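Run folding on both entries below.
>entry_1
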Amino acid sequence: WVRLDREHNGEAGGQTGGGALSGSDRQELAGLRRLKAEMAGEHAKEKAVWEKERAELEMEREVLKRSVAGWVKDSMNR
């Protein structure tokens, strides 16, 4: 994205000053990296919650399957 932005702004070769970032570019990059890290942390927490919920639902499903199998078996023996 940086290359495309620089090309859009008419900077030769997609680089300025030998490829060095300006101070504002460095600040923006640092801010974006912080935001990415925060979002990754939030995603990891949400994923853990989803996985826990999924495991609980799987256990409930197994209990229901066994219950139904038991009811069917009982009804067949009558």
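>entry_2
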Amino acid sequence: MKEWFSPKELTEIAGMPSTTQGINRKARAEKWEVRKRTGIRGKALEYHIQSLPLDVKKELKVKDDMGAYVIPSIEPVQVWMNAFEQLSKDEQRLATSWLTRNGINNFIAFIKKAEKDS
């Protein structure tokens, strides 16, 4: 999780001052842990998450967690294999028999018809 935040990033959080000057003023008044931002000219500062008010920390944590739940795409064959493995042995035999007898084109037509009917 990210630990250091610029004043600009903190202005986007509800309940915080809406300007970087307001954030810096609040930080000085509440004695937040501060450091100079690396690789930036001038007086660019950033604040440590542990120094921030609890509601701000919670919102930053939620924003950070949202990025962690990216669902990878699954190949269609993997979806089919996962579904097939969840069938009982009798259901697997029945599905295999049906596909062998009727073919994949009939299976797709069957699914399309079922979608229209629902």
